[in-house]
Structure formats: C-alpha cells, structure tokens
Amino acid sequence: MLMRTDPFRELDRLTQQMFGHTQGTWSRPTPMPMDAYRSGDEFVVCFDLPGVSADAIELDVERNVLTVKAERRPLPHDEDVEMQVSERPLGAFSRQLFLGDTLDADNIKASYDSGVLTLRIPVAEKAKPRKIAIESGDSGHKEISA
C-alpha cells in the first residue's frame, strides 16, 4: 500500500495558483503529478516529467521511503534571445512515497518513456494470499485459503 507523504502539497498548489510561481522563490522542490494503481501482484506508479531527460532523474529507497528527484534544465539558447513567454517550470522536482510492508522495495523496476516515469513495485510474497493446511484428528488434511 502507498501512502501520501506531503500534507502541504495542496496548500502549495493553491498558493502557486493564487500568487503565481516565480522560479527560485520557493524553497521546497515542486512536486510532480502522479497516478498510482494496483495491477495484479504489483503497484504501478506513473510520474509526469515532460521535458526532463532520463539522466536528470534520481530514484532512492531508504527504509521503505521511495524518493524521486528530477530536474528540468533550461534549454540552451543564444545570448541575443529575448524570452517572450516562459510558463514551463524549471528546476528541481521531488516526491516521496512511503512504501508499506506489503510491497517489495528491493525489486522495484523503473522505465521512462515520452516524459512518463513508470515504477513497478511488486507485492511482497508474505502479503500474497496463500493456502493453509488444517490437520484434523482423523488423518485427513483440508486446505483453506487465507
């Protein structure tokens, strides 16, 4: 099971909408949008990172905390360029997720395609349903699903 880790995310989003976001004025990294869902025996988490190169993405797991960091760098342009509109946020993006004990943090797989980082986190073996044999006094065995 995944748990949200940033209780101030909505407050940051509302503040950015009301007052605008000027690059460099926020001390906290900008969070990245994500979807998370369970598909069979794995959780799938997708992060939107348009315009971020794969080498600018960093994934770390420490004590069941998954940290995703990314950086969108400015496009190189000539010195004589006068920017007319600059709405795409640049800089650091960060997101942390607490991974429950039912997930296998040692076997996370990551892929990056078309600006979407996809993580596949398997459900731990100990969390999967299993059958338990019940012994009875009359030498017969019966299996019940747990």
Write structural notes for this entry.
The chain is mostly beta strands. It has a single domain, classed as Immunoglobulin-like. Helix content is 8%, strand content 41%. It contains one helix and ten strands, in the order βαβββββββββ. The protein has one helix spanning 9-19, and strands at 2-3, 34-39, 42-48, 57-62, 65-72, 91-99, 109-113, 116-122, 131-135, 141-145. The strands form three sheets. The chain has a four-stranded antiparallel beta sheet with strand order 1-6-5-4, with no helix packed on it. Strands 2-3-8-7 form a four-stranded antiparallel beta sheet, with no helix packed on it. The chain has a two-stranded antiparallel ribbon with strand order 9-10. It is elongated and about 90 Å long. The two termini are 19 Å apart. Residues 22-27 have low confidence and may be disordered. Belongs to the small heat shock protein (HSP20) family. Residues 25-137 form the SHSP domain. It holds the Pfam family HSP20.
Describe, in short, the structure shown.
The chain has 1 helix and 10 strands, in the order βαβββββββββ. The chain is mainly β and 146 residues long. The strands form 3 sheets. Strands 1-6-5-4 form a 4-stranded antiparallel β-sheet, with no helix packed on it. Strands 2-3-8-7 form a 4-stranded antiparallel β-sheet, with no helix packed on it. Strands 9-10 form a two-stranded antiparallel sheet.
Task: Give, in order, the helices and strands.
Answer: EHEEEEEEEEE
Biggest β-sheet: count, sense, barrel? 4 strands, antiparallel
Content of β-strand: 35-45%
**Computed CA radius of gyration, to the nearest angstrom:** 22 Å
The tally of structural domains comes to: 1
In one word, what is the shape?
elongated
Low-confidence stretches: 22-27
Structural class: mainly beta
CATH architecture: Sandwich
**Mean pLDDT level:** 80
- The rounded distance between the terminal residues' Cα atoms is 19 Å
State the helix count: 1
According to CATH, the fold-level topology is Immunoglobulin-like
